[in-house]
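Trying the structure run again after the queue cleared.
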Amino acid sequence: MIRQISGPNLCLILVFMGSFTVSCSTSDLKPDTPNVVFILTDDQGWGDIASHGNPDISTPALDALAASGVRFDRFFVSPVCAPTRASLLTGRDHLRTGTQWVTYGLENMRSDEYTFGEVFRDAGYNTGLFGKWHNGSHYPMDPAGQGFDEFFGFTVGHWNNYFDTELQHGREMVKTEGYIADVLTDSTLSFIERHREKPFFAFVSYNTPHSPFQVPESYFEKYKGLGLSDKNAAVYGMVENIDDNVARIRSKLDELELTENTIVIFMTDNGPNGGDRYNGNMKGWKAKVDEGGVRVPMFISWPGTIEPNTIVEELAAHIDFLPSLVDLAGIEFTPKNPIDGRSFTRLIFEEDPEWNNRLLFTHQSRWDTLEKFPASVRDNRYRMVRYGDEWELYDLNLDPSQRRNIAQEFPAMVDELSNSYENWYSEVTSGLPASRAIPVGYEEAPQVIIPAVESNFSGNIAFQGESGWSNDWLVNWTSPRDKVWWELDVIETGEYEISIEYTLKEEDAGVVIESSVDGHTMSVQIDNGFYPDFLESPDRVKRGEVYEKEWAEISVGTQTISEGNHMLELQLPVIPGESGLELKSVILQKKG
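Done. C-alpha cells:
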C-alpha cells in the first residue's frame, strides 16, 4: 500500500507487510534541511514535569518546549535505560538488538544494528553524542562505531562523580571542571556553533537525575526548603538544572537564528527512580512494567512547522523514533534490519490520522534468565502485566491507577494477549547472541579496556557492590583455585600487551597474577601494596552503587594472539595474605 504523508518534506512512505522505506534522497532535500537536537534524560519520570501537574517542581523551559510544539500524551519506553536506548537508536525491539539488561555486557547492542547516528551521518549530517551511551563500551559497539562523529561523555550505565570529573572525549579521558550536566551542555553548544552552516544531529544524553544524587547546593536547598526528603530534593534539583540547560540550548539556537530550522526533542528513558514522588497517580516506577514505569514525557518542537500546543493521544513508543526522525527530516533511509516501529509524523500533521490499535510489549529481563521475569502488554485501553506466573489485567480508561485486576472477568482477552506476548517474545529472542565475546584488535581501537563487570568468575570471588552495576570490581579473590575469565573475539592476529587495574593491601604484597590465553601463560609479581581510600563524594543520600577510587596498573606481559575466539583467564597462583587483590579491569593494548 502506498500513502503520501503530508508534512514538511513530503517524502513518500512505502508500507508493505509492516516494513517501509522513505523514498527521497539527499539531492531532494530543501536548502534548509532541519537540524536535530535530541535531549534524553536518565530516570526522570513522567511526573517530574511541572506542566504534568507536579506542584513541587519548577520546569519552565520544558513546559515552554512542550507548549511550542507537540506533546505526546501516551508515549512508552522500556522499564530501564539500556533497552530503551537500543530501541530509540534502531527502531527495533531491544531484544532483537541483543540488548537485554543494564550490566554484565548484556547492555551491549550488536554492531550491525543501524542506528539513527549512522542514518543521519550517512545522509550528510554532522553527528555528536554528549553524555551517556550505555549500549556498548567496545568498538564497534561504542558511539564511534555506531554513527557519531563526535563523542563526549561515558559509555557505561552510570557515572561515579558529577563534579569536576573525567569524561571520555573520542578515545581519550579528559578532566572537566563544573557540574556534569552543565559541562555536557557546554560541549553541545560548541558543537552547534561549529556546525551551524551544515545540518547537524546533536544527541544530548544527560545522565541526571540518575544516582548518585549529586546536585549543586542552590538547587538542593531550594527543594529542601519545600520540605522534600534529601533524595527528592536532589532529584528535583537535578531536573531543574536540566531545565536550565534546555533553556541554554534553545537560547543558543535563537542566537544563531537556527530555531525555525531545528527539530528539538525531549524525552526520558524510563519511569522515576523511586516510588515516593509525584507520577500522575500511575502505578509503578523505574524497573516496573506497570504504566508508571514505562510512560514518559515526550515533546517535539519545530517552530513554523509543528503547530504549538498540539496534543497526540494515540499510543506511540521508542521503537517509533528512528522511522519518525527520518520522516521528519526527509532523508533517504533504507533499513538494514526489519523495523518494529512506525512513523508517528501523521499523528502530528494530519487532522484525522489512520493509526490502528497496536500492541506494545515489554519484557524486563535480568542477568540469569529471560524467562518469567516481569512482562507487560499494552493496547489502546488495557494493560496486562505479569510479575510471577499469573497475568493481571487493567482497564486504564476506567482504572488509570491499576487498582482493580479484571483478569478473571475477561479470560478470553487474557488468553489472547498472553498468546500475542508469547509469540512476540519467541520471535524477538530467537537471535540473541550465544556469547558476549569482547571484540579486540580493531585498528580504530588498539586499546580495549575490559571491565570486571563483563567477566565470568568462580570460587569465592564476588562484586564489591554485590549487584555488579557499572564501575564495580571484583573482591574476595583469596584462593589460587579461583579464576576470572573473558571470551575474546580477536579481529586481527597481533602482539597484545595484557595489563590489569587493581588495588592491593600492603600485607598482600608479593601476590602473583597469571594470565593465560590458549595455554600461553604469563605472570607478574606485585611487590608493593596500593590501597587508597574512596574518593570524596558529595552525595546527598547514600548511594546504591560503588564509590570511586584510584587504581594501580601493571603489565603482565605481551603475547601473540591469533585471529578468532579465545578465552583470557586470570588466576593468582601465589597469595601471601588473606585478601588477595581487587580487580577493576584487564587492558589489552595492540602493539605496533
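Residues 1-29 have pLDDT under 50 and may be disordered. Worth checking whether this holds up in the mutant runs.
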